[in-house]
């Protein structure tokens, strides 16, 4: 995790985030001064940001909206107070409505960001100055500390070449907290084709088979918000196991980038997970990221213990060797 410490001080009304990155200062600066790169990490997992305005000059403003997995929206703005390329910048950071107007009911703060070289890369110190103890407490209560940690954890993938970051590492499972798991897999192929492979029943049935010895017996895809999907599997030949299946509802879609669905065993209302699929393409390769939200820790551990990651890796390998290679 890039964040090594988060310090709140009531005497100075500040929250300071200290993080270290294995990249030079100029590369980290570039990530913070390009809205397209910022969108990949400014916002915790499940709440990606979209910057709708970007005037990177002293006195200029940036506006963004974070989009939650259930259609929630949270908007904010930066007003640039100082820019010292590539060593840091200072902004007035506040919450806003969808038009970018400041929200007076939520605390605004001055945020100063500094980048310093280290032997291994860059140390970032980000200090937020609040107006009152109440504002500092409100920010902490809103989850700012954990949200910052999980958001910064996404920056490693931005700072590195995508293949350097993920190629050859297979399906990776990261436990973010008691109820959230992030699964990533690099797939050689365009984002558009990987998206189709996740939503076209004829393509899905070619690769989403899980471990060897299983076949998909039913595939009903959902392409519009509110539609339901249904997938079923059964063992083949001498393979042991009982047929099973999943079903759920499509809650959000932004083709070919993001789709959010619920998931539960067929015929059961609970337990139900929230699956947030994100696709990012760079130089002909696509990073598949699935953020899974479980109802509780016990359910998370029970599902992971089934060998889910192994089944996903077998399916992703089949995706590359059959669908994308055709």
UniProtKB/TrEMBL annotation:
Give the protein's recorded name. Activator of Hsp90 ATPase homologue 1/2-like C-terminal domain-containing protein
Report which residue ranges the record marks as coiled coil.
none
Database matches in Pfam families: AHSA1
Q: Which residues form the Activator of Hsp90 ATPase homologue 1/2-like C-terminal domain?
A: 23-159, 190-322
The domain of life for this entry's organism is Bacteria
**Family of this protein:** Belongs to the AHA1 family.
């Amino acid at each position: 995790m890039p964040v090594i410490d988060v310090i709140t001080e009531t005497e100075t009304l500040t929250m300071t985030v200290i993080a270290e990155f294995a990249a030079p200062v100029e590369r980290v600066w570039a990530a913070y001064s390009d809205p397209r790169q910022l969108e990949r990490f400014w916002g915790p997992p499940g709440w990606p940001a979209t910057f709708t305005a970007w005037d990177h000059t002293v006195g200029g403003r940036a506006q963004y909206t974070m989009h939650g997995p259930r259609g929630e929206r949270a908007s904010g703005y930066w007003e640039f107070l100082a820019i010292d390329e590539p060593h840091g910048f200072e902004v007035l950071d506040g919450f806003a409505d969808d038009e970018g107007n400041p929200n007076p009911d939520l605390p605004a703060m001055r945020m100063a960001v500094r980048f310093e070289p280290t032997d291994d890369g860059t140390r970032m110190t980000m200090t937020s100055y609040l107006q009152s103890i109440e504002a500092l407490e409100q920010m902490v209560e809103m989850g700012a500390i954990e949200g910052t940690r999980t958001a910064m954890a996404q920056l490693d993938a931005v700072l590195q070449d995508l293949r350097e970051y993920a190629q050859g590492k297979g399906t990776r499972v990261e436990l973010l907290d008691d109820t959230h798991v992030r699964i990533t897999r690099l797939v050689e192929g365009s984002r558009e084709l990987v998206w189709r492979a996740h939503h076209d029943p004829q393509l899905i049935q070619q690769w989403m088979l899980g471990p060897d010895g299983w076949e998909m017996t039913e595939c009903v895809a959902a392409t519009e918000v509110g539609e339901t999907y249904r997938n079923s599997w059964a063992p083949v030949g001498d393979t042991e196991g009982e047929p099973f299946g999943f079903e759920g509802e499509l809650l959000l879609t932004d083709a070919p980038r993001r789709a959010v669905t619920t998931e539960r065993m067929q015929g059961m209302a609970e337990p139900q997970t929230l699956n947030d699929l994100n696709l990012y393409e760079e130089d002909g390769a696509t990073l598949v990221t699935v953020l899974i939200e479980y109802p509780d820790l016990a359910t998370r551990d029970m599902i992971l213990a089934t060998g889910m990651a192994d089944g996903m890796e077998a399916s992703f390998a089949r995706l590359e060797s059959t669908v994308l290679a055709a």
